Please model this.
Amino acid sequence: MRKIKTLKKNYEFKNVLSRGKFYIGKQISIYILENNKKYNVIGIAVSTKQCGAVLRNKIKRLIRENYRLIKTNLRQGYDIVFLWNKKIQPECAEYHIIENDMKKIFEKNKMIEESK
Model:
């Protein structure tokens, strides 16, 4: 099983958030920035003010799993930051809504490659 590359440092997140393109869905927002590498690097941020650690980690797991399933169809070479929408209660996190948000945003950005 290959591990997903992730952003870890604060300056990496700030770089994507300040220079990346912004797309918004129902439950998540996504910032996308080209990184000149041959692979995608993701970061996930959920505010500590919204909920406790258990719900934050649940949201991160849902986002990570949706990304894992769609990543084989994505173009490579991007930094991607996923943010939880602060207007949505964390208890309302749903797998299929996050999945639809991701697909719509990646199609809008033309990051999804056609299957061969």
About this structure: The chain has one domain: 10-108. The first strand starts at residue 21 and ends at 24.
